[in-house]
Specification:
Radius of gyration of chain A: 20 Å
Structural class of chain B: alpha/beta
Subcellular location (chain A): Cytoplasm; Nucleus
Order of helices and strands of chain A: HHEHEHEEEEHEHEHEEEHEHHH
CATH class of the largest domain in chain A: Alpha Beta
Helix content of chain A: 25-40%
Number of strands of chain B: 14
CATH topology of the largest domain in chain A: Rossmann fold
Order of helices and strands of chain B: EEEEHEHEEEEHEHEHEEHEHHH
Subunit structure (chain A): Heterotetramer of 2 NUBP1 and 2 NUBP2 chains. Interacts with KIFC1.
Distance between the termini of chain B: 26 Å
Organism (chain A): Papio anubis (Olive baboon)
Number of domains of chain A: 2
Oligomer: heterodimer
Shape of chain B: globular
Protein name (chain A): Cytosolic Fe-S cluster assembly factor NUBP1
GO molecular function (chain A): 4 iron, 4 sulfur cluster binding; ATP binding; ATP-dependent FeS chaperone activity; metal ion binding
Strand order of the largest sheet of chain A: 5-6-2-7-1-8-9-12
Strand content of chain B: 15-25%
């Protein structure tokens, strides 16, 4: 779609093509004819493509910098430890694609085959796709407005040949914007298992997580639970715990009680997590006994249990 | 009218009729109330005693305590269809130069944190004949704020808008808010290089922004994203005033051992490679976090903190460098 006016009412609104802000827009005739109101054919194509994907998990957060990409990557690593499970990690943070670096895949390229784009494989059972693989230099900035980002997300979902996948993990940018609306819209017919929301203990972060939870409820996206990241720091010298990000309003636990969503777990701050992400390695290999590793494993197990429960509920529904 | 060398008379909203700006209806583009602004361009061109230095993505000034909250009007039921809060940490500009007037514009529409960080949540935006009145923190009106957080009917409602609506609101924030005489306008942006950033730059371009402050944490993953931010600044013609490395080290309160929680040195290395000034490193400080959460004045309460020293040094560098950036 070409450049839209700044106060575009939206292609699927009642005012599409008829509002005063539509004057002069190159798409005015298209919108006025009602073409924008018809469902996107790509949604059906994506539904077909997603038939080979058993479970789809979105990783969301309200605030930036809370550790979403780190969590997505380690969720993928944790699930992929079972060699019989096929995992796919999709990074739809178009402006800030960190997944290639965290997975140690910087500089890799995407190849195209007859059946579509081929994801980049970290291991035999862990494939990754990100816009970072499509950029020629680590300095390249993706300065795109919403419609172009939506087009990219559509291509990721429709044109990538994921194959038979047990878990598709989608890492999103912070907030509740174009990318989130698009991924929920495109995967609407394909059924998302649920969303995991990451936060830190501070109220400033929780404030935005409440908005994120409201967003999930509005778009009828099930919430698997909330993960409290950077929750406490153990000093490597004296082994005493400090709260770098103090939970002044009760932290994620109180928020989860108030909003009736599960708290999946708390991950403490460990400097080794950051170091391993920078090196592109799995933190679980470097520090298998760290409290952070144990926290991650327990959270991953709860996510798996949720997905299995949903699957068995659906099967019961179909059979009854 | 004030003479040359004198500050213009304060109390610019005396003798004007003030109307409450209706709260935002999420899911729909917000339109101003029925009383239109008289002067749509409050950021007037520089006069002899009006200096407008515009910033992007920089630190915000210290708050001056809470004022009484006005009750929110119930206009309509809302229909909602990188670097963490640190990008809005306080800067002790008013302490260094008490006569400075600073405005903070929060264009993070999905995650507006500025109201909370200044203890101003629940405050309402009023409309006068010159436009929307920003929220003032103190009697002297030395710090003014504008954020979508002040326009939401309920604080937990999500702003789920696509690009064009966000662009429209940001344009209104710049053109319809009666900022008045400001020495600095600091714009807090969300992470990324997308609609909000492009809209802000387009709206501010006629006012010749001083430049952008880029904030990163020390890890390579964060620096990797910030490199793209620097490219964005270069492509859009925005000068980079400097790089700040935030969350650079944590000193354990029990044994005073300093640990690099998020690695160290990435910001300085990035500034060196990109050929932009490195303004300083700010350590992690739970007291700063607590102050931001509770809306307290960290600068007043913890002047002995190493974080205070780091913030003051960065503020001083910006103040000293400002004359060189003015056209």
């Amino acid at each position: 779609m070409e450049e839209v006016p700044h106060d575009c009412p939206g292609a699927d609104s009642a005012q599409a093509g008829r509002g005063t802000s539509c004057q002069g827009c190159p798409n005015q005739r298209l919108c006025a004819s009602g073409a924008g109101a018809t469902p996107d054919p790509a949604i059906e194509e994506i539904k077909e493509k997603m038939k080979t994907v058993k479970h789809k998990i979105l990783v969301l957060s309200g605030k930036g910098g809370v550790g979403k990409s780190t969590f997505s990557a380690h969720l993928a690593h944790g699930l992929a430890e079972d060699e019989n499970t096929q995992i796919a990690l999709l990074d739809i943070d178009i402006c800030g694609p960190s997944i290639p670096k965290i997975m140690g895949l910087e500089g890799e390229q995407v190849h195209q085959s007859g059946s579509g784009w081929s994801p980049v494989y970290v291991e035999d059972n862990l494939g990754v796709m990100s816009v970072g693989f499509l950029l020629s230099s680590p300095d390249d900035a993706v300065i795109w407005r919403g419609p172009k980002k939506n087009g990219m997300i559509k291509q990721f979902l429709r044109d990538v040949d994921w194959g038979e996948v047990d878990y598709l993990i989608v890492d999103t940018p912070p907030g509740t914007s174009d990318e989130h609306l698009s991924v929920v819209q495109y995967l609407a017919a394909a059924r998302i298992d649920g969303a995991v929301i990451i936060t830190t203990p501070q109220e400033v972060s929780l404030q935005d997580v409440r908005k994120e939870i409201n967003f999930c409820r509005k778009v009828k996206l099930p919430i698997i639970g909330v993960v409290e990241n950077m929750s406490g720091f153990i000093c490597p010298k004296c082994k005493k715990e400090s709260q770098i990000f103090p939970p002044t309003t009760g932290g994620a636990e109180l928020m989860c009680q108030d909003l009736e969503v599960p708290l999946l777990g708390r991950v403490p701050l460990d400097p080794l997590i950051g170091k391993n992400c920078d090196k592109g390695q799995s933190f679980f290999i470097d520090a298998p006994d760290s409290p952070a590793t144990l926290a991650y494993r327990s959270i991953i197990q709860r996510i798996q249990e949720f997905c299995d429960l949903r699957q068995s509920e659906e099967e019961n529904l179909i059979n009854s | 009218m004030a003479g040359p060398g004198q500050r213009p008379r304060r109390g610019r909203f005396l003798n004007t009729v003030v109307f409450r700006v209706p709260r935002i209806r999420c899911g729909r583009a917000w339109k101003p109330g029925r009383h239109q602004a008289h002067h749509p361009g409050p950021l007037r061109k520089r006069g002899r005693w009006e200096k407008h230095h515009l910033h992007g993505a920089g630190p915000g000034p210290a708050p001056c305590g809470q004022e009484g909250e006005r009750p929110a009007p119930h206009w309509a039921e809302p229909q909602a269809a990188t670097c963490i809060p640190a990008e809005a940490w306080r800067c002790p500009w008013p302490r260094l130069c008490p006569s400075l007037q600073v405005g903070i514009l929060d264009v993070d529409l999905c995650g507006p944190s500025i109201p909370r960080m200044f203890g101003a949540q629940g405050r309402a935006v009023h409309q006068c004949d010159r436009g929307w009145a920003p929220v003032f923190l103190d009697r002297e009106q030395s710090i003014s704020l504008m954020s979508v957080g002040f326009l939401l009917e309920k604080p937990d409602e999500a702003v789920v808008w696509r690009g064009p609506k966000k662009n429209a609101l940001i344009k209104q924030f710049v053109s319809d808010v009666a900022w008045g005489e400001l020495d600095y306008l600091v714009v807090d942006t969300p992470p990324g290089t997308s609609d909000e950033h492009m809209a802000t730059i387009e709206a501010l371009r006629p006012y010749q922004p001083l430049g952008a402050l880029v904030v990163t944490t020390p890890q390579a993953v964060s620096v990797g994203d910030v490199r793209r931010e620097l490219t964005f600044c270069r492509k859009t013609g925005v000068r980079v005033m400097g790089v700040v490395e935030n969350m650079s080290g944590f000193t354990c309160p029990h044994c005073t051992e300093c640990t690099s929680v998020f690695s160290r040195g990435g910001g300085e290395e990035l500034a060196r490679l990109a050929g932009v000034p490195f303004l300083g490193s700010v350590p992690l400080d739970p007291e700063l976090m607590r102050s931001l959460e509770e809306g307290h004045d960290f600068i007043r309460e913890f002047p002995g903190s190493p974080t205070f020293a780091a913030l003051t040094s960065i503020a001083r560098k910006i103040l000293d460098a400002t004359p060189t950036y003015l056209p």
